[in-house]
Write a structure and sequence with these properties.
The chain has a three-stranded antiparallel β-sheet with strand order 1-3-2. Helices cover 59% and strands 15% of the residues. It is an alpha+beta fold and 110 residues long. The longest helix has 25 residues, at 81-105. The chain has four helices and three strands. It has one domain (4-109): Winged helix-like DNA-binding domain superfamily/Winged helix DNA-binding domain (Arc Repressor Mutant, subunit A), CATH 1.10.10.10.
Length: 110
């Protein structure tokens, strides 16, 4: 299991990356992270929604409610132009960290 501090540090970059592929809703985001990490990153609603709200406050994403066939509402999140710029910046930062770790550990671990 990956420590919660690393999960928290990577949350914005992961959500921005998922939303760069199209709009999504909370449960789907949680499931995509779980699937892509082979269950090593396990998010909860209590962890994800504060991140989504903070990203909305930053102007990186926007949300909309949609009524489902069963009558329930689901909140969808969509990446905004500022979010694309934030993703580009965070991607560069994470790649730099990765590069440093590869140098320190040797390429056999890359």
């Amino acid at each position: 299991m990956i420590p919660k501090e690393l999960v928290a540090a990577s949350a914005e970059a992961l959500v921005l990356s998922i939303l760069s592929k199209g709009e999504s809703y909370g449960y789907a985001i949680i499931q995509e992270v779980r699937a892509r990490s082979d269950d090593h990153l396990q998010w909860t609603d209590g962890m994800l929604y504060p991140v989504l709200h903070r990203m909305e406050d930053h102007g990186w994403i926007e949300s909309r409610w949609e009524k489902m066939e069963n009558g329930r509402k689901r909140k969808y999140y969509l990446l905004k132009k500022n979010g694309k710029a934030a993703l580009k910046e965070q991607r560069a930062q994470w790649l730099k960290v990765h590069d440093v770790l590869v140098q320190l550990w040797g390429e056999k671990y890359a």
